[in-house]
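Let us begin with a simple case.
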Amino acid sequence: MKIFKTLLTIAFIATTIFLASCDSDDDGVIAVANEISVQDLTVTIDENPTNGAVVGTVLATQTVGGADLVFSIASELPVGALSIDVNTGELTVADAALFDFETNPILTATVSVVGAVNSGMVTINLNDLNESATIGDYRDGGVVFWVDPTDDTKGLVCAVEDQSASIKWHNTQQPSVAGTSENIETGSANTDAIITSLGTSYAAGVARAYNGGGFSDWFLPSVDELIEMSNNRAAINATATVNSGTDLIALAASVSNGYWSSSKQTTNGSVYLFNILTGSKNGGFATNNASVRAVRSF
């Protein structure tokens, strides 16, 4: 009996101590850590904004309010495009020249907040606005070499590099392809006709397979389009060089056959080759090897 009373006394003391400890802990309220999380931001704006223009605001949430948040840009592409308010997360344009649809249709950034459990991903999609084009501009995946005289927001660009330095037009000397033209703005239709008749294994197919700038509508230029490229060779080379490209091949005919066109001669079925150095066109068998520089319209 004494042992039982002793056990009851011990249990009572333990319970009293436990209750007392709970009472002393802020009436039983347990502190919760403040967890900060950063939200992603996706916006669409017009290209060519002004420096300082507001792009949007990166938001961060807290499980316990009141802490001061500190925002920063951890990374961005292209570098230097954005600025951020360290206190509010508001993003603004730092370098308007980088907000050019023809060069950077999508800009991205990663935003960090001190103490946050994650980073926020920022995606900025640019709206393409009609703009006047100038020979030598880098836009729409290539270098402008011809501007439509009736509408200076339209024209042709060539790739910044060759797609082949030595390829046949076809494996027969004078293959049959109906309806090709020599004129400006006919290269795309010519290329379609060539591929329909002869497949994609040769010069036209190589041009069509190019995807510079993320575009898939490149083509083998007509001979008149190659003439315009030759006329503007200096501007093309200068722009290509600063955009990780290469000069147009300008070698003597004894060294290089020049560039393939998508234009067939109407008299004998041979194909026009064009020598950039001499600015001359001449017919050649499709079994010759020549270079390819793809073109697209904008």
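The second case is a distinct protein. As before, the sequence precedes its structure tokens.
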Amino acid sequence: MRDRWSSSTPKVNFDLTVEIPEVLICGTEFRFRTSFNVTTKSDNVSHIPAVHFTILRLELKDITFVRAPQDKNASTTMSGGHRKNKHQTMPAPDAQYSGRERKDISRQEVPLNTLPASATVDFEQVSSGERKAMEQTRSCGAWFTARVPSSTPPSFRSFAISRAYQVKLTLGIEVGGKKYKQEVKSKVRGVVVGPT
């Protein structure tokens, strides 16, 4: 945050952090945290105003990957016999594959609601130590809650088919009259079925 017309304007550099659980459970709520962290600030910064966090969009992305070996010599009949051996009714157990694979990747996004949808957070005041004066901390954050639909299939991995998930979040920040938007993608280690 800085005024490009003046070099003496107070300046603040910051980064945004989003903490999302690695494992989600179908049909249950999960909590995630957003935080505003001041990395550097100029000496003439005396006070940073409250930060307004808004969850603009939250999605659970289902990524399904399917791979299947293809045997180009196999016939399209139910027996699957090779075209070269017309009298053979069953394919040979050591039939060679062409080495090519058919791969399909499908992606579906399920929008999730968050509670609350937005939050305004002030920086805490703490003792500076030496001067025994109060000063602002360098970070503040807000917790949000979302729910994984109970109809969500669990993630898994096999030779031919695998399903993985990703959380996609669009975060809006407003501080000092300036607005920022950040998109975050986080890989989920697993979506599991909860206790019934």
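The radius of gyration is 27 Å. The chain is about 0% helix and 55% strand.
Keep these points in mind for the review questions at the end of the chapter.
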